[in-house]
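Thread: Newbie trying to understand structure tokens

Hi all, I'm a second-year student working on a class project, and my supervisor (Dr. K.) asked me to get a predicted structure for one chain before our next meeting. I've only ever worked with sequences, so writing a 3D structure as a token string is new to me. If someone could post the tokens and maybe explain what I'm looking at, I'd be very grateful. Here's the chain:
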Amino acid sequence: MTPAERPPEPLEPTADSPALDDPALSHEEALVLNYIARNRAKRERRRGKRRMVVGALVVSACLLTAGLLRSRYQGPPIATGIIEPPTGGPDARPAAVTPPASPRTSEAPRPAASPVAPATPPVASTPAPAPRSPSPGAPTPPEATAPAARVIDVSYQPSERLKSVHTGDAKETVFELFGTKVERRNGSLVQVEGMRLRASGRSARHAQVEVAEVRITDAAAAGSLYWFLFGDGRLIAWGRANEWPMAAARYQVEIEYEPDRS
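---
Reply by user tm_fold:
Sure, no problem. This is what the structure looks like when written as tokens:
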């Protein structure tokens, strides 16, 4: 037998147990009947307490609902005016009856309307004077003319910059040295033309060769054409236009370029 199947422990019989008065029952049967009777009595008492609690809650809810409905639908108290008897003679008029105060009229008094300012009379507009026509003998003023645009002169690179050029210089360094610039000379703006890339090809020593041109003012003429040969991004040689055929044959350059000798 497991602990869950153990029979309940016998209880001591009480004096009011009906099973004790029956001599036909054994002592064990009387104890069982007494236990059942006591459990039944406990359940009845618990049910009675629950009924009382539920009844109290229902009554409280009903009273609360009735109070809320009454306070919601009940109108304001009606105030009755008191009529005073006349104190004068037979010609005396009866006293005025004070009407009950209405809940809608118990609002805050409205502010008094501000006095309206008198309207300002319209001011008559003065017509603009008509333009006077010039007299026949009066001189006509000259018309305003826009300032003339400044003309920028074109110049060439100075020959002194050739002293800063060396074989093996980077192509970016040479282009920066002979770049296009705008300078002020003798009170006027002068644009100095910069170096331009003209052609590209290849040679026996370099995978890529490039030729750039720039005009330089030297002892021979103002604006002499100079070419600059670059191989793989580095300066190989430079010279005047008439020196290009010798340089192309010397460095075995395969490029479609012919300098302008004008």
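A couple of things are worth pointing out once you decode it. Residues 157 and 216 are 5 Å apart (CA to CA). The longest strand covers residues 209-217. Feel free to ask follow-ups in this thread.
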